[in-house]
Design a protein that fits this description.
This protein is of the alpha/beta class. Helices cover 36% and strands 18% of the residues. It has helices at 22-31, 36-47, 62-71, 143-157, 182-193, 213-222, 236-242, 251-264, 284-294, 320-332, 358-379; strands at residues 15-16, 72-73, 78-84, 90-95, 101-109, 112-116, 120-122, 137-140, 169-172, 205-209, 226-230, 270-276, 301-306, 337-339. The strands form three sheets. Strands 3-4-5-6-9-10-11-12-13-14 form a ten-stranded mixed sheet, covered by helices on one side. Helix 1 packs across helix 2 and helix 9 runs parallel beside helix 10 (320-332). The chain is elongated, with a radius of gyration of 22 Å. Mean pLDDT is 89; it is low at 1-9 and 356-380. It binds S-adenosyl-L-homocysteine. S-adenosyl-L-homocysteine (SAH) binds at residues 129-131, 173, 177, 208-210, 230, 273, 275, 305, 307-308, 351-352. S-adenosyl-L-homocysteine binds next to strand 10 and strand 12.
Length: 380
């Protein structure tokens, strides 16, 4: 959890339209006596034109505008601060209620722009190598707070849906375990996919999970998106150490659920993320175990992520030659293996570094104030 020195005032009596997917928005409109196409019209204003002021929705009649004004609002999260890295990566710290904040990160590449979105404030899974875990779990994000990250980034970047796409891909790889906030995440992803929303194809919206087996099955029935699984080790002993959730859902069960996913969605692939930590999971025997596992999942990919350090961690990034050797071993075995380039590490925006800086700043401010108080006590 990140503490922010600000009290959020939300219009509690009004409904935030960012909490609705298309179906929900139509139902809300029906509730105020309006036709479904009116909901679609407003939805396009919100997600295509990034308009949050009903006044500016010029093709919406005056009477309806007044009705909307009285009953609802378009409430994206507030930007506490944002920062650009030398490589074009951009990070937003977004304030939620109760002094919480989460981070979203934009990663531009020559042929695409990827937005990394958070699903929870903090995380309860306690993966040993992840900075978010050190904060513990605070709460699930609302749909409006998830899709709102994309709305804020899109507005900042000048994204125009169906015309000038700056955000071509979304990955639910920010803070939190998305499958533990299932309903809100699915609703937000349906807004990412919806033609009246951000209109992204299914292969461009990816949910990443640490491996909540029953929820992977549920997801395959709920919505058409891409799946990434954070593996990090292909033997149970090591994986349980790194990802404690593995105790509950061991590798055999995880692989079986991935096989069911592939059976339900032929022609799709699953990406397996593997964070390389020096001397922990980066040896030839680990690659051999991974190859054996991947043989059971035809056409799936491995995404190698060099470990990104954070203060207080006991892990180190594997050496470049070791990473290359690991990748080569997999490639030679015919496994499609990509190496994720580390981006935005000068602003702590890389994988596993998302935490937010305000907590420290608040602490510093608290210390500063304490010292001030002490000083003035001395002076008195
Ligand atoms: N809970 C989800 C999504 C958040 S983690 C999941 O586990 O997939 C997103 C990705 O970042 C995961 O693959 C995770 O393992 C990786 N990651 C976490 N900490 C990291 C670190 N310090 N360095 C590199 N990658 C890390």
């Amino acid at each position: 959890m990140t503490q922010v020195n600000q009290v959020e005032v939300t219009p509690n009596d009004k409904v935030n339209l960012l909490d609705f997917d298309r179906q929900g928005l139509r139902e809300f409109f029906a509730g105020i006596g309006e036709k479904p196409y009116r909901a679609d019209q407003v939805m396009k204003w919100i997600y295509h034109r990034l308009e949050d002021n009903f006044e500016n929705m010029t093709d919406v009649g005056k009477v309806l505008r007044a009705k909307l004004e009285a009953t609802c609002y378009v409430g994206p999260p507030k930007t506490m601060f944002d920062k650009g890295a030398a490589d074009g990566t951009h990070k937003w710290l977004l304030g939620m209620d109760g002094g919480n904040a989460v981070e979203a990160v934009y990663i531009p590449e020559p042929t695409r722009g990827t937005l990394c979105v958070s699903s929870q404030v903090g995380c309860g899974l306690n993966c040993q190598f992840c900075s978010t875990a050190t904060q513990g779990f605070n709460r699930n994000l609302a749909t409006s707070e998830i899709i709102g990250q994309m709305w804020v980034a899109a507005k900042h970047l000048g994204n125009i849906t169906h015309q000038n796409r700056r955000i071509t891909n979304v990955v639910m790889m920010g803070m939190g375990e998305p499958l533990l906030n299932f309903d809100n995440v699915v609703k937000a992803m349906s807004l990412m996919r919806d033609d009246f929303g951000f209109g992204l194809a299914s292969k461009r919206v990816t949910l990443s999970t640490a491996g909540l087996v029953p929820m992977i099955d549920k997801l395959s029935e709920a919505i058409d998106v891409s799946l990434a699984v954070s593996l990090h080790a292909a033997n149970d002993e090591l994986r349980t150490e790194l990802v404690p959730l593995n105790k509950r859902y061991p590798i055999a069960e995880l692989v079986a659920s991935c096989q069911r996913w592939l059976a339900r969605k032929p022609r799709t692939s699953i990406t397996f993320e593997y964070t390389l930590m020096k001397g922990v999971n980066d040896q030839p025997e680990h690659a051999r175990q991974l190859i054996k596992l991947m043989r059971r999942l035809p056409n799936c990919k491995v995404n190698l992520i060099p470990f990104n350090p954070f203060p207080g961690t006991r892990f180190e990034r594997s050496d470049v030659e070791v990473i290359r050797a690991f990748q080569t071993q997999l490639l030679n075995a015919g496994i499609l293996t990509m190496l994720r380039r580390t981006r935005g590490d000068d602003i702590d925006a890389a994988c596993g570094q998302l935490k937010g800086q305000v907590l420290d700043r608040t602490r510093r401010q608290a210390e500063f104030r304490k010292r001030l108080d002490e000083d003035s006590a001395h002076a008195a």
